[in-house]
User: Fold these one by one.
Assistant:
Number 1:
Amino acid sequence: MLILGGGLAGVACAHALGDEGVAVTLVDRNDYHQFQPLLYQVVTSQLPAEDIARPHRTIFADYPSVQVVTAPVKAVHLIERSLVLSDGRTLSGSHFVMAAGARPNFFGVPGAAEHTFPMYSVSDAERLRLHLQRLLHEVMSGATTAEGVLDVVVVGGGPTGVETAGALAELMQALHESGRLARPGRITVVDRGPALLAPFSSKAHHYAVTKLAEAGATVRLGVGVSAVHPDRVEFDDRSVIPAHTVVWGGGESGAAVAQNAGPGPGRGGRLDVRPDLTLARYPGVYAVGDVANIPSHDGDALPQLGSVAQQSGRWAAENILRERRNEPTKPFSYKDKGIMAMIGRNAAVAEVGKRHHEVQGPLAFAAWLGLHAILLSGAHSKADAFLSWAWDYFDRDHAAFIEASSAPQRIAWSDDEHDEPHISLERHDLTIRSPATPSGDNHG
Ligand SMILES: Cc1cc2nc3c(=O)[nH]c(=O)nc-3n(C[C@H](O)[C@H](O)[C@H](O)COP(=O)(O)OP(=O)(O)OC[C@H]3O[C@@H](n4cnc5c(N)ncnc54)[C@H](O)[C@@H]3O)c2cc1C
């Protein structure tokens, strides 16, 4: 059994197969699983990067039948159910599960790939944190007095953009209120559409705008980004915002390796799967999580959400086990737990359960917490450590604590201190944690 990708989908699939003692090889370019919902906590120094990057070898320590290979995959051959690693090795399996996730989609906007900070991986978040930290030090030490150095444009008004904008606005406000920053950076979130948090209700749209405004951020809707330069963003209404930091939360498409795999990619560059998560014309091949267009009951594809990834990964494993027993596979049935977003401390919005019952504020935060504890449980057994960190985060008088340069409070996972992920920053090739032992290539 071969799985490409050790994110929420791949890990859930490998766990379910490993539980049955099935031999599994899981391949990922990183030696760790990354928990994307908490990336913006890394950006604003609320959490160190290693707290949301859990080594695969720890995750599978109690799964002797699961073997992890750390290497970038350069090609996939679906008919043979095999993949080619960057060092030329080929691996194959009786079944193949594509769980390679997604990548940022810049929609061809000139300069976006070169000059923005996408928010998809731990190294993306760490790179943005270090960039902001450098700018903050320059301003606080008086090394630069230029206006607008700390201004940030966040592209995309979905949950990623809104959560990041909210956290950055709070950071700026706290530094200003504590007297460390005379002029806080202006945070502007822009979206081409008419509302923030589009998949949510209109009440939530309004709530998000209000909460961001309270935190000091500006919202611009109905305007698209036409070009990004190192020091400014141009919009299609010919307006320009000077900014040295542009965060890209403007969209994503299926992982590159899936787009070149054979079947023409469907909507969003993702692989269209049948209701049982298999790929038509490729026996024994499944696609799950963000890399797949998974049909829902109403015919649309399910959204790219952690719970969809986790549940579909597990379901693919169950269908593989059925195939091994010569039983028919079953169509994927998604248990919708709702959608939620944290706009800042004390400002969360959630639509809970299948009926998307609307809640806001502390209740929404509690829902957010519950869902994230379930998602994290795939990689961490200590959900209570996460819950106590998160309650503290929610409750804390943040003005005294937030500082981009300080050591953030850790989640008390009580891991073995040697068992840490090897995170390196691709674009700047800056290693932030030296590996204790040699490992495979982290980034392809
Ligand atoms: C900023 C952000 C915030 C989010 N917040 C939420 C939230 O609050 N709630 C929620 O439900 N969902 C949230 N999501 C969505 C959720 O995180 C994803 O739906 C989920 O993580 C997808 O899991 P996956 O396993 O399909 O893909 P991923 O987690 O992306 O895993 C894919 C894996 O494949 C590996 N891989 C890819 N290509 C190769 C290759 N060529 N060679 C080797 N390895 C490869 C990658 O290294 C990666 O480990 C958020 C997403 C982002 C980006």
Number 2:
Amino acid sequence: MTNGRSRFCTDEEVPGRILSVLRDARKYAILVTPYLGLWPHAEDAIVVAVKNRVDVKVILRADPQVLNSEDVQWLLLNKVKVATVEGLHAKIYLNEAAVVVSSMNLTRASTQASLDFALTLHDDADTEAVREYVTRTVVALAQPVTAGKVVMNEVRKMFNHAGKSDRGHCVRCGTDIDLDPSRPLCPDCYDVWAAYKNPEYAEKVCHSCGRSATTSYAKPLCSTCYRSLR
Ligand SMILES: [Zn+2]
Ligand SMILES: [Zn+2]
């Protein structure tokens, strides 16, 4: 990436400028976008960044519609960290070398119809204030989103449709508990888990179907149950 001059672009050039933040990232990328509606090029850029061990974080507006979208589930499945902030309106995309401030949300609709701009700033005094705003305010206020929280509403819906009971299973010992993917452990197992609170720690049972599967506190469903939600 070249150092120095900031560059301004508009309309059809904007999506590419935003995706270049992902493509050029070597260490991390933070995408601050109130709304989300991924399109194939955006998904590709995210997948490639994650494969290249870039720490990708997406910060969204705390809004149930945004949170329950398929895109959020897709991000979590693809090892992207997702967090939300109340009242978020800023759109800022940055990596360790450059900052893009833009009017564009990371949504497919914006790539087609909206009049948008993006201003790329390469690292110097100008970017410092933006970086500070993102790390000290936006990231500091952000609440992490786990797969369990997002999936919970969908699981409830699915089971209500199927006329099944709201019974689930402890992901560690398999005992019957309420179906609630945000609380996938029985009280006893929870106490043990709580000593370490590692959301990725491998468990043995699917919270929904009770079959043996590699699950975790963060991702309590087997792949079959998870897929059936999509
Ligand atoms: Zn248990
Ligand atoms: Zn299952």
Number 3:
Amino acid sequence: MVDMNIIHSKIDSFRDEMIEMQRELTARPALGPLNGGTGEHDKADFAKKQLVALRPDNLLEINAPDKLAANGYRPNLVATWNGTREGRNVWILSHLDIVPPGDLSLWKTDPYKMVVEGDTIIGRGVEDNQHGMVSSYFSLKAIIDLNVQFSGKINLAFVADEETGSRFGLEYLVREKKELFSEDDLIIVPDGGNDEGTMIEIAEKAMLWLKFTVKGVQCHASTPEKGKNSLFAMAMLILEMGKLKEKFNIKDPVFRPEESTFEPTKVEANVPNVNTIPGRDVFYLDCRILPDYTVDDIIEEATKISKNLETNLDLQIDIEPIHRQDAAPSTPADSPVVAILEDAIERVTGLKAKPMGIGGGTVAAFFRNAGLPAAVWSTTSPTAHQPNEYCSIKNLISDAKVMSTVFLNDEKSS
Ligand SMILES: [Zn+2]
């Protein structure tokens, strides 16, 4: 039986190396073509060298063809270490790509020159998703350096294209390299969670974005009888859409929030001046739907509500679903990956983690749609995609300890 304290002390000793790896990764901006870059190649080359240093039994470079990227492909890396005994395979999958820094004036430092301030490191990508890359890498390095035996295979995957849809990343892997994965594998995606590390995300709501265009008749504001005020109708319509909440009101305590949500969000500009009654208004509704309902149920009801108002106000309302993502099947709350992760988290942090569902889609959906139960977990700082993105060093170390505990879990071999 391995003494986990020795492994955890080893991980503590990697603190400076973790920071250095974060610095090197941050200095290699990995932006996909749809985010104004050429791909993840430099960062993948660096990551590959690091993986090779841990002498994997197998290292796959899986290049997903992408005409828009440098050299016509997007790089994906899968490194595998074979255990000495039979057992479940473990996967930790992180993504190489980042989102652009956005407005540079909002950054206090250069986004691509990482800085350390106390327990935090700041830079684009340090949290999303270098946190996952670095934690998983050093969790394994401790085991390799100490020559600790484990069962099954340990796999680290660093994939491309998470931020712009995963077509050239996980979606490609799951489709083209299906044989790599088995439904018995323990799959962890450290790309979401909460700041305590107690949230294991196993389910997600379906997503639907509806665009409403209200067409009235524009006229001078002093003679409203000559027109049909589309802004007034739009306001009515927004209120009417509140009926969605009443009708689709099932609650599921696995989810945060527990119910489906239907939120009006974006409004397009209408008339530029105050003394004109607008004849056209556009707004959008963001819907996050529990698995108890289908996306089509929602579209049907929203259409019915619009039609009623159209008749009552005698103007035209068009509805267009501009984006929909039907929910992937949930990872069962009693699946081995959840139990083993819960146990590892409690052993390292003393905290009880819980399986939960969230409103936004994660990359784990590609696993789940392929019948592979994946859990999304990490101890996150809530700064992904924001300026001055930061990552806690304490969390990097603690998450690495949890991962090493998962790698060595005895239950894994049963
Ligand atoms: Zn991410």
Number 4:
Amino acid sequence: MHTPVLLDQVIKALEIVKDGLYIDATYGEGGYSQAILERGGKVLGLDLDQDQITKGLDDIVLVQGNFGDIEKIAKENNFFPVDGVVFDLGLSMKQISQSGRGFSFKKLNEPLDMRMSLKTEMTAKYLLNHLSETELYEVFARNSEEINSQKIAREIVIKRQIKKLDIVANLINCIDSAIGEPDNNVYKRIFQALRIQVNEEFENLKNGLLGATKIIKEKGKIAVVTFHSLEDRIVKKFSKFPGLKLLNKKPIVNRRGRSFEKSAKLRLIVKDIL
Ligand SMILES: C[S@@+](CC[C@H](N)C(=O)[O-])C[C@H]1O[C@@H](n2cnc3c(N)ncnc32)[C@H](O)[C@@H]1O
């Protein structure tokens, strides 16, 4: 069982009540779900990736689905109104190291797939080989704010005329040619930007937060753990909607977060009386 970095802080903030209803919107390996069940809460676990929900915990409703559809999924399963929702964004270590879908810049022979759900039609390979230079630049700049986005987009368009990009090594090769030397931070940002695009992560987050407010009780809490400053910005902006408030002005931060990211940030949104 995986222990998420901000587990204690999230569980404390959610103030789990016995027989209360909670949605773990990013089930993964079930770290939050297990902690909620141990405290007597009831859990609906949700994950976009079918491979993440093969081993369910006892007494849990487990659904393969997109948290962008959280309202619909909760209603279909007659699991609402809920006391709390937790979103732990991004990928699990298992997905990065074992999925074989090209999420990590270190797995040179993996295909440039990057889909969290194999039901998604878009792949990183399609984007890299079909978007125009401007479109590629926009994907990189918008999703990662990488300063070399323009040069990298240009290099991809030049290199793909000779041979289509197919595996991770091909993209690394384009980045190296564009920036002149290997740089893990640039690789990380470009890979993350592509993954965000393939899986429409920012749109899903906005829809997921909105959906969560529709199925949560008054005074219910939404805990969101982000690993990306642009995601944190979306959460912060969302919390300013009427009827919502942030429990802490500043996010709770874990600087020892996953090695491939700077830090994990926890924000807590509470549904106030409208
Ligand atoms: C950081 S991991 C969660 C780890 C989890 N808290 C644990 O204890 O193992 C993020 C999970 O969210 C899932 N995910 C990402 N986007 C999703 C979405 N739009 N809808 C549902 N699940 C999603 C990923 O497939 C991954 O399993």
